[in-house]
Every structure is written in C-alpha cells, then in structure tokens.
Amino acid sequence: MQLTYETRPGDRAPRGPVWADEILGLVDGQWHAWADLPLSGPENLQNFATRRNLKKTLTYFSTGSTGQPKRVDYSESDWAEAVAHRAECLTALGVRSGNVAAVVIPYGPWFSGDNVSDALLSLGVRVLPAGMYGPHLSAAAHLMDRVGAQVVVTTPSLAMALAAEDTKLRPRLIVLLGERCPPALVSHLKQRFGAELKSIYAASEAIVGPQEFTEPGTYRWDPRRLHLEVLRGDGIVVEEGAGELLITRRYGYATPLIRYRIGDQVELSPPPRPRVRLLGRIGHAFSLATGVKVSRQLLAGFLDTLPAVVDRKSTRLNSSHIPLSRMPSSA
C-alpha cells in the first residue's frame, strides 16, 4: 500500500494520505484537510471522539500516566481490529496454536490483558489470564509453573519482578510489551529463565508492531492499520526521519486516535519497508511493577523526603541489582 499524498484542483498543498477521508470522516466535519488536523495527546483525547451512534460499544475509564480519568470507547469492530493486530504481532514472534500462555499485564483499555488474551485465544493458544496485582505475583508465578506456561506475555518491569520470585518457571518465550528493556535486563532475564526474549513496541494507547530481528531496536509497523508520522524539532511534521512519533489508527471509530503524541523519540522509515527505531523518551519515567508510571522528578522528590540513612541505603545498589540509570523507562 502506498502512503502517497494526493492533490486536488485548487489545493495549494497536499491534502494528506490517499485514504485521509477515512479519518476526516470520523471527526464530524471539524477539519477538511489532513494538514489542518491538530496534534493530539492524552489531555485532549476526546476532541476527536465521534458522535456516531455505535452499537455494542465497550467503555473503559483509564487514568493512564496522567492521573486524570479519561474515557476510552471501543466499538465491536474496533475491538476486532485491536485483537487481530495483536494476534499478527504475536504470530510474528513465534507464538503458535496449542501453546500455553500466561498473560501478566494489567487489564483495562489500550494494550491490555483482555485484548491480548483474546488475541491469543484467536490463535488457538491456551491462556492463563494472570492479570497484574503485586501481592498475588508470587502465587501467579507458581501457577504459571504448574500449568506449564510456554509463553509469558508481560512488561519488562513485571518480568523483573517475576525474576525475583522463588519459582521454577521456565517458559520457552517471553514476549515483552511496553517500556524499553535495557540490555542488562535482557541478559538477566535470559539467565534467570533460560527463555528467548522478544518484544512488541507498544505505547499505552497503541501497539505499533513486533521487533525486526535483523535490526536491533527496530520494529515493523503495518501501514494498513497505522499511519505514522514524526514531529521534527523545527515543528514540521514529516513521514520519514527522526522526531517525536505521531500515531493515527486507521480504525478506532468509537475513540479515534489521530496524530496522537505518545512522547517517544523515533527514527521512522515509510513503506515499502515500514520500520520504526525507538530512540528514547522526550521525558524520563519509570514503569513500576505495580503498573504505575513515575517520573524521575517525582522519584527524586520522594527520596528527598526520606531520612538520610534510608536515602543512602536506597541508592546503594549491589551487583545483583540493575543501576537506576539502566532501569527500563516507559515507552
């Protein structure tokens, strides 16, 4: 599929991708050309909410990383698209029918335990929906061991927490979603579990695609499902090069995700070889094992409130720990 731009008689600038009308049709006539669409983010997600009368709509309320409740709606077709995309990514990483998989991620909107579990079930995988609740993590680890989980789908921070549990869990494959996984943690997890580690690039709001095995740190994305752009440092939006990633989902009728800023710095390559290389975050944050995102500033402020002796001990890391500077940052 070509992401070429079209120009119509009288246009002074390209209107946008040839399928732009698919997206413009969702926003009730507020904007008439692709270039007029504003950039969006968590603070104004509902600006694009469609007023269509959709049947069989699922509704979540999510606080995400902002701490401000936001409504997220899925139509029946949105859910089917999300599940199908996740299934394609998992298949690309080697998940197969008949596998036993444990899903150890929160349940809620966006990429979550429920739509990932649905994707696995659609592939003929037997699923243990372990969820994510810190006090139950030890019991969940032992249960995964007892059922013989061959695949574990989780986040790097939760995988690190699982590695600290006293369990004989030895999966064949660990699929990591979400925040970046530094090399030190990859080596630690491989040694601890003896598993192959593969990753899917996922922001809170969207799964982008599976890792590209020939290019470390690079992920494939499907232009049939997503349109990716980058916002350069000079404020210009382009479809190739380095900058802040903007995501438009080519579905999402209940809550459209249009030119959505997720805070990741990437290097983007367009079709015919669509690839995205993750460079880092605009801001710095950590995803804790509880699923909560904490900024460096907030973490530093918390340490400042502790007595000096506690503060010194909390920052003295021995060889069995991963230095704070190499902890997984949220993506």
Features:
single chain; 331 residues; alpha+beta; globular; disordered C terminus
Widest sheet, order of strands: 6-5-7-8-9-10
How many H/I helical runs?
A: 8
Let me know the average pLDDT.
Answer: 79
Largest sheet data: 6 strands, mixed
Instruction: Report the uncertain regions.
Output: 1-5, 308-331
Our measurement of the CA-to-CA distance between the termini, rounded to an integer number of angstroms, reads 28 Å
Rg on CA atoms, Å: 21 Å
**SS-derived structural category:** alpha+beta
Strand content: 25-35%
How many β-strand stretches?
A: 18
Could you estimate the helical fraction of the residues in percent? 10-25%
Shape: globular
Question: What secondary-structure arrangement, pairings included, does this model have?
Answer:
Elements: E1 5-6, E2 16-17, H1 20-24, E3 58-62, E4 70-74, H2 76-92, E5 100-104, H3 113-122, E6 126-129, H4 137-147, E7 151-154, H5 156-163, E8 173-178, H6 183-193, E9 196-202, E10 207-210, E11 218-220, E12 226-231, E13 237-238, E14 241-249, E15 260-269, E16 275-281, E17 285-287, E18 293-295, H7 296-304, H8 308-315
Helix pairs in contact: 2-3, 5-6
General description of the model:
- The two termini are 28 Å apart.
- The chain contains 8 helices and 18 strands.
- 24% of the residues lie in helices and 26% in strands.
- The chain has helices at 20-24, 76-92, 113-122, 137-147, 156-163, 183-193, 296-304, 308-315; strands at residues 5-6, 16-17, 58-62, 70-74, 100-104, 126-129, 151-154, 173-178, 196-202, 207-210, 218-220, 226-231, 237-238, 241-249, 260-269, 275-281, 285-287, 293-295.
- 36% of the residues are buried.
- The chain has a 6-stranded mixed beta sheet.
- Helix 2 (76-92) crosses helix 3 and helix 5 (156-163) crosses helix 6.
- The model is unreliable at 1-5 and 308-331 (pLDDT under 50).
- It is of the alpha+beta class and 331 residues long.
